[in-house]
């Protein structure tokens, strides 16, 4: 995907699914992603809310936003948006948890309308570039 396609992808995600946050309890959206370098190192993924519009720059996700550090678009190898995500809060003497839905059908329709590459299943929407 080109930088502009990634930019459009993230802006559509933010508009349809809502603003992300680094903590699932406070986030309107959620995703997991990895980079080509991370795949070759330990095959790990990061998780957080989707970047806010202020985080989406012309060639990257900016520093100090929802994702906590910059991610050049061309380094993103795989991004997964689940149909729902779980959150929990543990405090002394109390526990709260729940799940939040994400409208992948509506997001997929918007991405198709913008001709942005993606794949959708009954559980996730993803962009996989490897």
From TrEMBL:
Lineage: Bacteria, Pseudomonadati, Pseudomonadota, Betaproteobacteria, Burkholderiales
Protein name: Uncharacterized protein
